Each structure stands twice: as C-alpha cells, then as structure tokens.
Amino acid sequence: MAEPLRIALAGLGTVGVGVIRLIETNRDMIAARAGRPIEIVAVTARERGKDRGVDLSPYAWVDDMQAMATRADVDVVLELVGGSDGPALTLARAALDAGKGFVTANKAMVAHHGLELAELAAMKQAAFAFEAAVAGGIPVVKGLREGTAANALDRIYGILNGTCNYILSEMEQTGADFGEMLASAQEKGYAEADPTFDIEGVDAAHKLAILAAIGFGTRIDFEAVRTEGITQVRAHDIAQADSLGYVIRLVGIATLSGEGEARRLLQRVRPCLVPFRHPLAAVTGPTNAVVAEGDFSGRLLFQGAGAGDKPTASAVVADLIDIARGQAGAPFSVPSTSLVECAPADPGERIGRDYIRFTVADRPGVLAEITAAMRDAGVSIESLIQRGRDTEGGNVAVAMVTHEGPEHCVGKALDLLEGSASLTAPPLVMPILKD
Amino acid sequence: MAEPLRIALAGLGTVGVGVIRLIETNRDMIAARAGRPIEIVAVTARERGKDRGVDLSPYAWVDDMQAMATRADVDVVLELVGGSDGPALTLARAALDAGKGFVTANKAMVAHHGLELAELAAMKQAAFAFEAAVAGGIPVVKGLREGTAANALDRIYGILNGTCNYILSEMEQTGADFGEMLASAQEKGYAEADPTFDIEGVDAAHKLAILAAIGFGTRIDFEAVRTEGITQVRAHDIAQADSLGYVIRLVGIATLSGEGEARRLLQRVRPCLVPFRHPLAAVTGPTNAVVAEGDFSGRLLFQGAGAGDKPTASAVVADLIDIARGQAGAPFSVPSTSLVECAPADPGERIGRDYIRFTVADRPGVLAEITAAMRDAGVSIESLIQRGRDTEGGNVAVAMVTHEGPEHCVGKALDLLEGSASLTAPPLVMPILKD
C-alpha cells in the first residue's frame, strides 16, 4: 500500500475529537477507500492537559499551532479551531504557502477569505477543501462542485442552520413563542450560550455565500448576503402560516439572474413561508437541507445532520480521503482565476409573494389605513387575516399575503406607514418560497 | 486550455439526445469546470436517418457500434443503448479492453456485469463510471462512493423506481386502484408499454444492488436481491395504512449485519409501510430518494428526479467531467480486488413489524382461524382492522399489524393458513419501515 497521508490536526474541541475517533474507528476501511492510510501525526490545542476522552499519546503534541504548517512530516493541515480571522487564518495561509494541503470546517473563514485561500492553494498546487464548512455531514459541497457540474444552476437554497430550524419546528409543534424555545434549545445543546450568529442568520449566511460561489462560479461575496434572523417570528405567525398552508423556516436563498454584464446575484437569509408540499417543509429539528435547481438535473435535495461532532467529522474525513486519492479538485469547482465577479441584485426587483404581519392598535380605521397604503404603493392583497385581541398590551395582529409583485412595492407601502400611530410595533415581512 | 476529452456516443434515444443537448447548451461552463472541453466526436445508433431533433452533422456517424471502441480519436465511450447483455456489454468490454474510458447509464448491465467491468477497467487503468445508472440525476453514486467514504454504512435504502412511486402516490391521492393508475402512468409517459421491469421491482433491484456494492464494499450480487413488485397493493391497503399513520412506497433496502465471516447482506425490494414523519413519506410522483445511514454521518438523504432525458444527461456528463478532471476513481469506491464476497442474509431472521392483509370469505370463524395461526406461529398482533364487505365478490379484507418479531414467524403463520378455505386470495405482507 502507498505511503500514508499524514495529518496535523489543530483544534481539539468536539469536532477535533470526533475526527480522531472516526479515523481510529474506521481506520482499515478508510485506508481501503483512500488507497492509503490516513494518519494523524501531530495535534495542537490551547490546553494540553485537558481530558478529552481520547488518547492523544500516539500523536506529537505541538505547542505552537503555527509550527504545524511547516512540519516536514505533515502532508495536510486540518484546522478545527474556528474564527474567521486570527490564528485559524494565519495557519491556513502558512500551511498553503508551505504547499501543504489544507482542510477546514471553518465556515466563517471560508466565507470571508475563501477566495484568497483558493488562489494561494492554486498557486502552490496544494489541496484546499471545506466540505464540513457547509451543512455538517451532508456532502453538498461535493454535490455542487462535482455532482451538478454539468448544470447551469439558477437557484440554490436551503435550511442551513440547525439551531434556527430546531427552534422554528419546536415552536410549530408546541405553539410556544421564540424566547421560550430558544431557552429550551440552549438547554438541549442545540443553541450556544451566545446564540447571536445562529439566530440572526449569520451562520446560515456564511454557508450560503460558500454554496453560491461553488454553484454559480462567482467570486465569494459574503458581504453582499442580506441577512435577517428569526427573533421577530412569533407563535401567531406560525399559526397563521399554518392556516394558509405553510410552515416557517429560516431559508438561505441565492438566485442568479440576467446574462453577461447584466448578471446579478441575490443572496439572502430570511425566515420564509414554505408550502406544506415543498420538501423543505418536512425538514424538522436540527436537520439541514439544501436544494439546487439545475437546468438539466432539475431540483435536487441533499438532507442530513447539519452539525454535531460525528457528522462534521464524516465530512472532514471525506475531504481527507479525496486528497489521499489525489481527487481534491478546485475548491470552488472552477479554477479560482475563472470565478467571476457578480454584482449584487437589487432585492426590490424580486417578483414574489409576501406575508406581512402588522401589530396594530385595536381601534377603528386601522385596517383602512393599512390597506390604503398598500393600494397607494401598488401592492395587491391576496388574503388578509385579522386576529382577535390576544397579543400583548391589547394590540392586534393583522397578517396578509400579497399577490405576486415586485418587492419594492411592499417596501414603499411600509414607508408610507412609517410613523403611523396605528402601528404599535415594526411590521414583519416574510417571503413565500416559490414552489 | 488542455486537450479536449473526446467522446464516442452509442445510442441516440431520449437520453443520448439529452446528452448532446446538454453538452451543446453548457459547453463553455463544462469546459471551465472540467478544465478542458468535452467534445462528442462520433455517434452511432440503429437507425441513421431518423429525425431526433438535434443536428448530428458535427459528429462522425459510425455504422458498426463496436467500431467505437477502438477509434484512435476517442478517449471515452459513452453507452446509452441499454440491455444487460448483447451489444452494450460487447461494447463495454471492447472499450475498456482498448483502454478507453467507459461511461454508461445502463443499470441492468452494471448490476449483472459491473464487477467484471470494474476489474477490466482496473487492469487497463481506464475510467469506468455509471452515475446515471442509479436514480437519474441524483448524484448518489458519487455521494456513496466519495461523500460517505469515511463511514461504515449499515443500511442503504430508498425509492428507486419513479414509475412505482408515481403509481403509489397517485393511488394515495385519488383512491383509485392499481390497474387504473398504471394505465394513467402509461398515458402520461411515466410507465413503459411493457411495465414489467418497473412494477415487478426489477429496475429498483438493479439500482439497489449497485448502491449496496458501493456503500458496503461488497461484490455486487444482483441475483441475491429478493424482489416483490407493487401489483398486489390495493386501494384499501393504502387506506388502511393511512389510518395507521403510514404511506405505502416501493422501497429497496440493503442491510449489512454481523462481523467478519458472519457478515451477511440482505437486499430486498418490497412495498413497505413508511411512517408519515419519515422523509421518504414525503417523496411523491416520479421522484427518487436514497437514504444512507453511516456510523458518523447519521442519516443522509439524496432526492431528485429519478429518470428523464435531462436529469439522466446531467448525471452522464458529471461522470465525463470527473474523467476530464482525472478524478474518476474506483467505480465501487474501493479497488475491485478489495470488494468482499458477502453471503446473503436469511430474510426470516429480520426482526421487524409487518402489515399483513388477508382477503377472506365473509363468514363466522375466519378471524378465529387466522388469529389462532398467528398465535401458533408466535406472531404477536399489535392491531387488527376488519373492513366491511366492500371488496370484490363478497370477500372481506382483514389487515393487521404485528408487534416486532422475527419474520420467519410470519412466514410460519402463513404456512399454517396455506390451503385454508377461509382465504380467498393469497395474503399480502408488507414490512413497516424502521424509523
């Protein structure tokens, strides 16, 4: 059998330990599939002494993480430290610069610096892979980079954050409100103590930017992702969506439109109304799912565990096997020099239907005021639900669904209502996912 | 840009024409992703003159299909002729023997001769790929060969035949019976004039045998697949399953059990009761879906169009792109010499729950006779439904669901009832898919 592929592992949190366990558990099978053994030779983490439940004695301990990058006995540096910048990025640059392969699960770093790292990897003819950075154990980076490679994709979307999906589907099951379910998610380990990146949609935005770059062949543009989280979604939104035939999910959507110079990319993470019959409606709990729509493949769905030490380790080691096989390929499917710059689309030009929920004072004339603003802005109302006085402080929730139209009209209607004494809280707009 | 990858295309049915259209439509994008152009240089089919809606003049026409295999101007032979043996197999052997790459969508041939062809390909260091042979446009061969490569899988299952799934989900929607929906599927082009291979489960069995070999690293063993089709499923079975919280789907299931010498492989295609909450329950119409359960990845689902010219072309060209990139890899994930022989499991040893439907004469004592046989065979009944006299000829349908137990007990119960005058038609047993 050929020479082993030798790995330096930086970061011994749950995922790092998961990778060690996986490589130990499935050692022979991995060697058979990779064509050669995959061996961890060196490890590093902040604290050496900590008991992590695995025996680290077979591996060289390295105190200075950055020293991993230049060890002569290492072929691939595996970064599981996290953080978009700082030590992870320094390590990535140093490893690739030294011509080592570089594998990471770090979505923030790939979203911010993936293009630079891909260019460096190409220059050094080094492998750079990040399957684990998107949707945990689901092989969707490979799916888009290789599986759909023959297709022009025009839409990539999905449920990219398990924490939000857990909270939303639990709200759906229990009728409880957001705050209560967030606390429950934290208790069960599905949400961090500081859940900001998850519930505000930033984590999903990292993943969406990566998928869009791979699927569309565009230069990764995380800054252009427009992001809204789920903190404004209320139990009565979920109930009203249900009565209309929808569930609410946090969906990242990337859409490519136009041709040539006029090509535009829209990247958004927002809570959306998903029709019951759509496959994403059936995705509950901390599961992730990605849909890619190709001109020949049609709609493809990839679904599975979006996080967790074992699924993430599965994705990390799949990358290592690809590298061992000599099949790593271009990280974004095409050479990084071929990735094209694509200007962000104006979201106002989106043509679609929206759910709008107003929180209003319970007095005569409020509905007339709202519907007049809609009319003046050119928004056509498909259905309107006024609920009884059961929200806090004697306010009433008025929800409506618009007919298909340009999104900027909805924006204009809300501008017209801005400052109105009838509205006791900012309205919430959620798009209806096109089937 | 590097030299083009030159393709000889055998077979100009809908898929062959789809491949020509795809390669023409997405030419530049494919070249960017593949690192070099992919060019069809020669084509062949039975009839030369036929109008296929595409211009064949750019390609050399070859009258003798077998001559494709040895043309000096060809790198890869693409076989879209079909048939497990005959000209397709002769071409496969000749192409690989000549050291050409060989790509096919031919599930029957791969199921019967895939191991031989993989061995020949390895000997000649030629690429051999068949993504399109399983589940149309879904990149599930790649998913199992590479995406889950770090995992020991213990179960691979899915909806592998679009015709059956269309018929069953239409029966569910309309309440109509099998024959009526088969006719409707034929009218709409979802079923062939001779639907035997589809409705008897043979097509799904071909695909299952291929997936099992890739996922488990076993020598492909199509003969060992135990296959039952959907012709015995009645509208009242679907109604009764529904009342119990299930839909009926034709599911191919491959399960690996035991260790070392005692390792056993169970491969079966059968109509199954699928719990509403299971992702396969949401798969309707001609869609396919494959679930792989890995020890680290957990449950992964791959879903999409299972057939059709465009999705199949998408899968075929993905294989060509892999070959152009030099990333074809071992067709069954490990070198064919490493694939292990695995004896078939005894299906009677399966521990599970079953749905059993009896068609019985409507007279006193019948239920007592059936339940006594169950008791004597050691089958424990979880629930029992006796419907009114609404089936043909004054018979009554009695359905029951068993508690978990060994399948051979159910077989024994049916043996005890064999020849009983109370049973007016053979019973139908369908397993309940484990969640």
Which protein chains make the most extensive interface, counting residues with beta carbons within 8 Å of the other chain's beta carbons?
A-B, 58 and 58 residues
Tell me roughly what share of residues is in helical segments of chain A.
25-40%
Structural Rg of chain A: 24 Å
Please identify which CATH superfamily of the largest domain in chain A we are dealing with. Answer: Dihydrodipicolinate Reductase, domain 2
Q: Detail the poorly predicted runs of chain A.
A: none
The CATH topology name of the largest domain in chain A reads: Dihydrodipicolinate Reductase, domain 2
Shape of chain A: elongated
The termini of chain A sit apart by 50 Å
Classify the oligomer: homodimer
Structural domain tally of chain A: 3
Protein name (chains A, B): Homoserine dehydrogenase
Enzyme class (chains A, B): oxidoreductase
Pathway (chains A, B): Amino-acid biosynthesis; L-threonine biosynthesis; L-threonine from L-aspartate: step 3/5; Amino-acid biosynthesis; L-methionine biosynthesis via de novo pathway; L-homoserine from L-aspartate: step 3/3
Keywords (chains A, B): Amino-acid biosynthesis, Methionine biosynthesis, NADP, Oxidoreductase, Threonine biosynthesis
Descriptive report:
The structure is a homodimer of 435-residue chains. With 435 residues, chain A is an alpha/beta fold. Chain A folds into 3 domains: 5-133, 3-Layer(aba) Sandwich (Rossmann fold); 140-306 and 330-347, Dihydrodipicolinate Reductase, domain 2 (2-Layer Sandwich), CATH 3.30.360; 348-431, Alpha-Beta Plaits, CATH 3.30.70.260. Helix content of chain A is 34%, strand content 26%. In chain A, the strands form 4 sheets. In chain A, strands 7, 8, 9, 10, 11, 12 and 13 form a 7-stranded mixed beta sheet that branches. A 6-stranded parallel beta sheet of chain A has the order 3-2-1-4-5-6, sandwiched between helices. In chain A, strands 16-17-15-19 form a 4-stranded antiparallel beta sheet, with helices on both faces. In chain A, helix 3 runs parallel beside helix 4, helix 6 (162-174) crosses helix 7 (178-187) and helix 12 crosses helix 13 (407-417). The radius of gyration of chain A is 24 Å and the shape is elongated. The termini of chain A are far apart. The model of chain A has no long low-confidence stretch (mean pLDDT 95). Chains A and B meet through helix 1, helix 2, helix 5, strand 12 and helix 11 of A and helix 1, helix 2, helix 5, strand 12 and helix 11 of B. Strand 12 (298-305) of chain A pairs antiparallel with strand 12 of chain B.
